[in-house]
Design brief:
Pfam families: HTH_11, WCX, WYL. InterPro entries: CBASS_pafABC_assoc_protein, DeoR_HTH, HTH_11, PafC-like, WCX_dom, WH-like_DNA-bd_sf, WH_DNA-bd_sf, WYL_dom. Keywords: Transcription, Transcription regulation. The structure is a single chain. By secondary structure, this protein is an alpha+beta fold. The chain is built from 13 helices and eleven strands. The protein has helices at 3-22, 27-34, 38-50, 80-89, 92-97, 101-114, 117-129, 147-156, 225-240, 251-257, 263-268, 289-297, 309-327; strands at residues 55-58, 64-67, 158-165, 172-185, 188-194, 199-203, 207-216, 243-249, 273-274, 280-286, 303-307. The strands form three sheets. A five-stranded antiparallel sheet has the order 6-5-4-3-7, with helices on one face. Strand 9 and strand 10 (280-286) form a beta hairpin. Helix 4 runs parallel beside helix 7 (117-129). It is elongated and about 90 Å long. The N and C termini lie far apart (81 Å).
């Protein structure tokens, strides 16, 4: 079959799913979503009409195309790869944390029932061959007993009053927040919320008490949770790593460096200089002399601190203390 036929069939399914998900849409908005011309949308709508799809359109500024109320298309437009990927989309642990474990299982069962037999076999194999484990190594997932309540406020766009324990003084504070979204990072849940002046991040496990208020709020126009999270991480790292150090790594130290430091440090180390003796001279960002000392001691004799002097002296003092303990 011609490739163009496959493309058009996929586009028709996408058009149906868009109308099913968003309701009324203009020809121009459909064309923008599907990256085709408005004339192509008119032809596709005529094809769907001819196929018996209950689709109608209204003229005028507030018009557009819409499916007949109650019409739902079946998932026959899924490709094999799309069906397989759906079995990786829902992490069972986090879904259960949010009270959605049963819903995810039910949705997967319904999907399996709707798929043709060959595609069903391929999709089921995905779950038996890949498992996504969200928590980081050496850390147990945090208990967040108020997560379900916080998620409810996020979903229903309700103001949330929280008692929050933070790291600096005063430790216990009370805030009324506009909860914008939840993020799971390395087994820990974080609430992104707008306070009285700005959007901040709150660790859900540090929320001591919470009350969902019977008052809704308007989300900031154009707010993108994923983009905000990426930007806030970059800003946090920029504020955290305010200093730098120059170190020399042996070949073995270079090979193991990335597994012993945070990604932001490992990334900076990619810009290295190879000396005549085969060692690697690297400039890395550091949070503080104390923090860098602990980080570099993990590499033992495979690293030498060149700059700053304060860091070199502190590492030297730590090595001497260790030698006095083990050598007597």
């Amino acid at each position: 079959m011609c490739q163009c036929v496959h493309v058009r069939a996929s586009r028709l399914v996408s058009l149906l799913l868009l109308l099913q998900a968003k309701g009324r849409m203009t020809a121009q908005s459909l064309a923008d979503e599907l990256e085709v011309s408005v004339r192509t949308i008119y032809r596709d709508v005529d094809s769907l009409h001819a196929a018996g799809v209950p689709l109608y359109g209204d003229a005028g500024p507030s018009g557009g195309y819409q499916l007949l109320d109650g019409y739902r298309t079946r998932l026959t437009g899924l490709t094999e790869q799309e069906a397989e990927s759906l079995f990786l989309a829902g992490l069972p642990g986090p879904a259960a944390d949010l009270g959605l474990g049963d819903a995810v299982s039910a949705a997967q069962l319904k999907l399996m029932a709707a798929l043709p037999s060959p595609m069903r076999d391929r999709a089921s194999r995905m779950a038996t061959r890949f498992h996504l484990d969200a928590p980081a190594w050496y850390y147990d997932p945090e208990r967040s007993p108020l997560l379900g309540l916080v998620a409810d406020a996020v979903w229903r766009e309700r103001l949330l009053e929280v008692s929050y324990r933070r790291w600096r003084s005063p430790e216990d504070v009370t805030r009324v927040l506009r909860p914008l979204g939840l993020v799971l990072k390395a087994g820990r849940w974080y609430l992104v919320a707008q306070g009285s002046t700005r959007i901040s991040t709150y660790r859900v496990s540090q929320i001591q008490a919470a009350t969902v208020l019977d008052k809704s709020f308007a989300r900031p126009e154009g707010f993108d949770l994923a983009a905000h999270w990426t930007e806030s991480l970059e800003d946090f790292q920029a504020r955290q790593y305010t200093g730098s150090a120059v170190i020399r790594l042996s070949e073995r130290g270079w090979e193991s460096f990335a597994s012993n430091v945070l990604p932001v440090v490992a990334k900076a180390a990619q810009e290295s200089v190879v000396d005549e003796d085969g060692s690697f001279r690297v400039t890395i960002p550091i949070e503080s002399v104390d923090h860098a000392t602990g980080m570099l001691l993990r590499l033992g004799g495979e690293v030498e601190v060149l700059e700053p002097v304060e860091l070199r002296e502190q590492v030297t003092a730590a090595v001497r203390r260790l030698a006095s303990i083990y050598l007597g």
